[in-house]
Amino acid sequence: MIRVLLADDQELVRSGFRLILELAGMDVVGEAADGAEAAALARDLGPDVVLMDIRMPEVDGIEATRRIVATGLATRVVILTTFDLDEHVYDALRAGASAFLLKDVGREELVEAVRTAAAGDAVFAPSVLTRLVSHYVEERPSPAPSLDLSPRELEILRLVGAGLANAEIAERLVISTATVKTHVRHILQKQRLRDRVQAVVLAYESGLIRPGDT
Predict the structure, then answer these.
(1) What does pLDDT average to over the chain?
(2) Which of 8, 65, 166, 195 could in theory staple to 95 by disulfide, Cβ–Cβ 3.0 to 4.6 A?
(3) How many CA atoms lie within 13 A of 91 on its CB side?
(4) Are residues 7 and 80 in the same domain?
(5) What are the angstrom distances between the C-alpha of 132 and each of 5, 32, 72, 79, 197?
(6) Residue 86: predicted pLDDT
(7) Does 214 fall in a domain?
(8) Residue 129 included in any domain
(9) Are residue 102 and residue 142 in the same domain, yes or no?
């Protein structure tokens, strides 16, 4: 059973999400009204997924995400936001969040997103992620980190950043999908990235791919 922690400063929102998730057979193990409480509960309860409101009093969802990631938990954080093209969402992804959802998300989409996040898979289409990341990297360029990767791994990381799925990368490079998955796994391990979302962020912030590249 998937274990979920809800973090939102509005009790009505938490109640609505709890009802939806419990009806879908998930276990809502706790609720938090601010980021500090969310981080503490995540550390104590070790949920599979935290549904995290990005804007909360005192400690916001970005800092709470950062604290959860710092614990080394396998917990996946899904950010809840009002606007999809949001600088705060980008900051949350950089902090270690695995996905974001609009707060007016439908029931089926919410349940599917939580299941997908719990399984460690991508919650949204790569094009949505790359649009968000490329927009804010363009506005706020960061110092380029050095990447200790092989030429092939750099090539695959660039294609991941461009929004290509594993099958598309395999077709472009004329290799098997299994080989692509192996390379992606090695990239994540070498760069100490939690998932593919952080790989996309790294591809842009390292300058390996730039807004508008394909």
Answers:
(1) 87
(2) 65
(3) 12
(4) yes
(5) 26, 27, 26, 14, 11
(6) 66
(7) no
(8) no
(9) no
- In sequence order, the 6+-apart residues with CB closer than 8 A to the CB of 86 are 54, 132
Can you give the pTM of this predicted structure?
Answer: 0.79
Look at the block and give the residue holding tokens 């995400």.
Answer: 65
161 and 80 inside one domain: no
Q: Residue 89 corresponds to which amino acid? A: V
Task: Judge if 173 and 95 occupy the same domain.
Answer: no
- What is the SS3 assignment for 210? coil
Domain range for 201 = 135-205
Dihedrals φ, ψ of 140, to 5°? Answer: -130, 75
Question: Is there a single domain that holds both residue 87 and residue 106?
Answer: yes
Q: CA-CA distances (angstroms) from residue 190 to 56, 106, 139, 147, 154?
A: 34, 37, 28, 9, 12
Let me know: does 32 contact 58? Beta carbons within 8 Å.
no
Looking up tokens 């974001």 gives 100
pLDDT at 47 over 90: yes
pLDDT for the residue 128:
67
What DSSP letter does each residue of 103-136 carry, written as one string? TT--HHHHHHHHHHHHTT--SS-HHHHHHHHHHH
Residues 119 and 197 reside in one and the same domain: no
Give 144's DSSP letter.
Answer: P
Burial of 103 (0-12, 13-18, 19+ CB in 10 A): middle
| Domains contained in the chain, number | 2
Question: CATH number for the domain including 170?
Answer: 1.10.10.10
pLDDT value at 31 more than 80? yes
Judge whether 64 and 35 are in contact, CB under 8 Å: yes
Give the contacts of 26 (CB within 8 A, at least 6 positions apart). 1, 2, 3, 4, 111, 114
